[in-house]
Amino acid sequence: MQDILFAGKFEKFEHQIGGYHKEARDMIALDEFILKPLPTKSKMDREHEFYEILYNEETILDEDYRTIRSFIPEYHGKIILSAKSVEKFEFLKLTNVLSSIKFPCVMDIKMGTQTFEPDAKPEKIQKEKEKFPLQEKFGFRIVGIKIFDPKTNTYIIYDKKFGQSQTEATIISCFRKIFILPNGKVDKNLVNYFILKFSEMLLWFQKQETFNFYASSLLVYYDSEIVGNDEFWKTHNNNNN
């Protein structure tokens, strides 16, 4: 762990569409890294413990741990940012998986039928259930979507309120937004790629008996330049056959 003086020189992570949005608690971009804020309550520091387990010397060569590490950003420890030399905030230092992408498209999905921990207080449980009652049925909710529009050279953003407003009749079309081409059609290559990745992740979850996940998020992202790029997918598919 290291202390860093927080003097306003750090930039907020511009592609954050979910998570914390309180003053001094946003994700921070630091070169090729992301500083992800940890909850202030010590009992909620399970995410840090999870990364420590995945990246310690005893598990680094384990096949199951190696698989789940392929689905998460690389962990570089926990650091402290000091604000005004008085307040201190803890952050996870993670590889910024979007750092090399000029115009990324991203979707943040809160996974699971239960987004609260087993020991959560009744008011916390009620608050979580009220966010999106259909989560217990769907097993997910869309926290946010950010899509680059090459026609206008700007981003189209759908926030958490948009995700929480979805119904059984609209959820599929909402989910499709991240895969739509500029002409309004769905990029089948992109869909097939993520089906493969989701299937690999699902297989790991079905086999593993080590972790219980609550209120975990799935970040779907890709480079907007590959959308509708048949030449890219031809090369990509050939390299993976």
Rounded mean pLDDT score: 84
SSE sequence, one letter per element: EEEEHHEEEHHEEHHHEH
Count of strand segments = 10
Binned strand content: 25-35%
Number of helical regions: 8
| Helical fraction | 25-40%
**Low-pLDDT residue intervals, each spanning 5 or more residues:** 20-24
Major sheet attributes? 6 strands, mixed
Question: What is the radius of gyration?
Answer: 19 Å
| CA distance, first residue to last residue | 42 Å
What structural category arises from helix and sheet content? alpha+beta
Strand line-up of the largest beta sheet: 1-5-6-4-3-2
Categorize the overall geometry: globular
What does this structure look like?
The chain is 29% helix and 26% strand. It has 241 residues and is an alpha+beta fold. The chain has a 6-stranded mixed β-sheet, with helices on one face. Strands 9-8-7-10 form a 4-stranded antiparallel β-sheet. A hairpin with a 4-residue loop joins strand 8 and strand 9. It starts with a strand and ends with a helix. About 2% of the residues have low confidence.
Features:
241 residues; single chain; 29% helix; alpha+beta; 4-stranded antiparallel beta sheet
Give the structure's gist in a few sentences.
With 241 residues, the chain is an alpha+beta fold. The chain is 29% helix and 26% strand.
How are the elements arranged and paired?
Layout: E1 3-6, E2 11-12, E3 28-30, E4 33-37, H1 46-54, H2 63-69, E5 75-83, E6 87-95, E7 104-111, H3 122-131, H4 135-138, E8 140-149, E9 154-158, H5 160-164, H6 171-176, H7 188-207, E10 217-223, H8 230-239
Parallel strand pairs: 1-5
Antiparallel strand pairs: 2-3, 3-4, 4-6, 5-6, 7-8, 7-10, 8-9
